[in-house]
Amino acid sequence: MIEQHDEPDLLRDQFRQLIRYRVLIVAGVVIGLLGGAVLALSGADKYVATSEITVRAATVNPFATGATPDKILNMGSERQTAASGVVAERAAKALGQPEAATELLANLQVTNPPQTTALDFAYTGRSPREAAARANALTQAYLDNRQQQTASSITIMVNGYKTQLDPLVKASEALRKQIEKQKDPSSVATNTNAQTNLLGRISELNGNISELKALDTTSGNVIRTAVPPTSAAGLGLPMALGLGLAVGIAIGLLAAWVRLVFDPAARSDSDVARALRAPVLGTLPRVRDSREPAPLLALDNTESRLAEAYRSVAFRLAYDQRFADRRRLLVVAPRGSSETATAVSVNLAASFAETGMEVLLIEADLRTPTLADRLRSGDGTRPAWARTPSVGDGGWPAGHQISVDAGESGSFDLVPGRRVRNVARALTSVPATRLISEADAPKSAVIVHAPAVLAYADALALVDRVDGVLVVCDPREVHRADLERVRELISGAGGTVLGAVLHSSGNTGFTLPWRRNEDRTAPLPVAPAEDAGSAPVSTTADLLEAVLPEPERSPVS
């Protein structure tokens, strides 16, 4: 059964997967720091000076009731006028720099606080004095421009009233002269009424003209004058770098998360367990590269961490009821090289032999058999069947069952692989079936090593005879879809995935899942020797000897 994780475990697992993309995270941090540095340096030589004014409309009596200009002012239009080219040109002329109008307009920012008739002028300059001088010049230019527009509007309106007034004055004067000459009372009365109407209209126009001339054309008041700023406008180098670091980490984590989402590889133990629906029995650690290849048989050194790790995997298999019932194990890789799967199968055979079991290791890789060379390199001796060419028709198996010396672990029998003309026929032959059935004998076990499942169908031809399958893979090189397909193929062929052993490419040593964060140099506990001349016996080996002979064992998830 697959171990169920709670929410904190899932979050920790996802975080561990994210930090594996260190290149993306570091790239995000570098980009953030560079952006913060650019932001700090770009504002290091810029200074912002601000001024503020209140805009007012022309009125006869600013203190009269209802004389507030809020109802007749459109502050949006006033803000656009303040940031217009007309104001910038007027300010440039006032500064004596007519050619600087475009620069003034580019560095000016005008804002209007909500629910107010105020305008804030902010100018960004290369020096504090320049910023203050230009901010004040732009402010005064806006006020002068607005006052000039108001005065111009008043002049135009007064001239319009005068244009209407002059004909009325002339008509009134003509009626007055007619009244003086006329003797008829009715005619005099009619002309007098007409003159009265004209005089009323003339009085009204004169009143409008007088009111316009009495208007206060003050366009606004300066409530804050721009002064030279004491510091640059930027955030400062420490703050900008801190902000850039935070943004860079966020960018890096986002990029890593996107990469993780679209990464088809099985990046963690939980991914492998979910894809295979079987537990991870061990994980191969990263070891330093060595020019000399690692020995195939790690159990020669009883105190080595690698030897104890293999014994621990065998111990977990021994407690799995599915393996204990039939004691048959097929060790395969999903695809690619099977070198690590070969090492796992040999050392598991030695681990079981160490407990006193009769173990038969079958090399079912009949396409590229390499176990002979690896055993020679690992044990230092070359078996007789490797030195002397075999005789016969070249079939497999041909009765060549060799006893392999596993050092202090004892010995186990080996049926080496051999190139044949028809691999499928050899794997499904009666002699091959008879070999695998040797596990039916008491205190015996059969371990079969076959080529990668997705490369050839050789392993699937043996699944119905072996039942239990151990998958050996590199989670960074195999896709989750491949593992799911391996599980489906094995289940469809009538077998069961007992678990998985993970590794990194090129490594043959591993640590168990619960020891992954511990010191990798420390070996597992070793029982003390009875006397100085006897070899130490590992604790795991003692447990295996106590467990394996028992007929009843509960499966381990």
TrEMBL record:
Keywords: ATP-binding, Membrane, Nucleotide-binding, Transmembrane, Transmembrane helix
Region named Disordered: 521-557
Spans traversing the lipid bilayer: 21-41
Name of the protein this chain belongs to: Lipopolysaccharide biosynthesis protein
